[in-house]
Amino acid sequence: MEDGVLKISIDRIYEERKRELERAIHIAQREWENIRVSLELCGDIGEFCKNDFMIGIIEEDVIIREPLISPTKSVSGYSPTFYPMYFVRNLLLMDQKLPQYGYKTVEALYVFTELVTKAVERLGLLGKFSMAFGNGYAYVRTGWIAEKGNPWEREYFFKMFFKGRKVDYDWDFHWTSVKERLKRIFQKFMEWQNDPNLYAREVRPKVRVKPMMV
Asked: What pLDDT, on a 0 to 100 scale, did the predictor assign at position 177?
């Protein structure tokens, strides 16, 4: 009797987690298409592929997935994007909060950092440049700042995106002005990637030399 009850309980948990996973994939696909629209002047990022992310897979009664090596992952094991199930959790919580808060949530910050970083990798940005672009995009989308990445690149993204306009995070992915601003920012990041000297001149903070005390 107890074994039967336990099996029913395990089966129920399995089905619940399976539905959660399917829901998370649906949300990720939806937001990927939004990002795809916003970046269309930069190039076509293609279709969403769940294998590019730590979405998870079903094995028996548990959803698991080995962490991928990605520039968006913090070296800290406590990072909200480090463990496989956190991406699923962030997707679900972001969607749950969307009617009340829009994209201005911490969960949306991590979701867009993950998705946009992978999107611009497909367009040619690599390593720290794809991560920085993902961080910058997530910042202007959500108003939240990730704990990783170069703050100067993020601030450049912010200033370029909102240059000449009021800071308002409730913009639409389909707006022409948004697409044009993202294109200019993307082109600048590509220039930095292709020209280390230009990157050093424009991004790296100036070293302040303190006078020697005598």
From this structure: 96
Q: Report the DSSP pairing between strands 62-64 and 57-59.
A: antiparallel
- Separation of CA 47 from chain center: 16
User: Could you tell me if 32 and 69 are in contact, meaning their C-beta atoms sit under 8 angstroms apart?
Assistant: no
What would the mean pLDDT of 195-201 be, rounded to a whole number? Answer: 92
Residue type for 114, please?
Answer: E
**Whole-model pTM?**
0.80
49 falls within a domain:
yes
Domain that holds residue 192: 2-201
> Are 178 and 37 in contact, with CB atoms under 8 Å apart?
no
In a domain? residue 148 = yes
pLDDT at 56 over 70: no
Which of 28-37, 117-126, 131-140, 201-210 shows the lowest per-residue confidence on average (mean pLDDT)? 201-210
> Rounded to whole angstroms, how far apart are CA atoms 120 and 42?
9
Rounded Cα distance between 197 and 201, Å, is 6
Query: How many whole angstroms separate alpha carbon 56 and alpha carbon 22?
Result: 10
> What's the CA angle centered on 129, arms 123 and 55, to 5 degrees?
70
Domain count, the chain: 1
Count the alpha carbons within 13 Å of 141 in the hemisphere toward its beta carbon.
28
Structural domain contains residue 211:
no
